[in-house]
Write a structure and sequence with these properties.
elongated; 4-stranded antiparallel sheet; mainly beta
Length: 79
């Protein structure tokens, strides 16, 4: 089963975030709760975590991309 990784909404006024750096690469195993990427909002830089265990199957949002909240930025393939 595939699990979408979405740009999170980190504050009431947040409408988009910028992907600064991927901490995992396509094909790497990820554990639930493990940091996947760093994103920048208008107020802070944060790490987003995996909500599923599996393999990072596809990175859709590239480093430097500004992505709307709720848009898919990656896919984690099931165990």
């Amino acid at each position: 089963m595939a699990n979408d990784v979405l740009m999170p909404k980190m504050g009431y006024d947040m409408t988009e975030g910028r992907i600064l750096r991927w901490l995992k690469q396509e094909g790497e195993t990820v554990e639930r709760g493990q940091a996947l990427a760093e994103i920048e909002t208008d107020k802070a830089t944060i790490e987003i975590e995996a909500f599923a265990t599996g393999t990072l199957g596809q990175i859709i949002g590239k480093e430097g991309d500004t992505v709307p909240v709720g848009q898919r930025i990656a896919v984690i393939l099931g165990e």
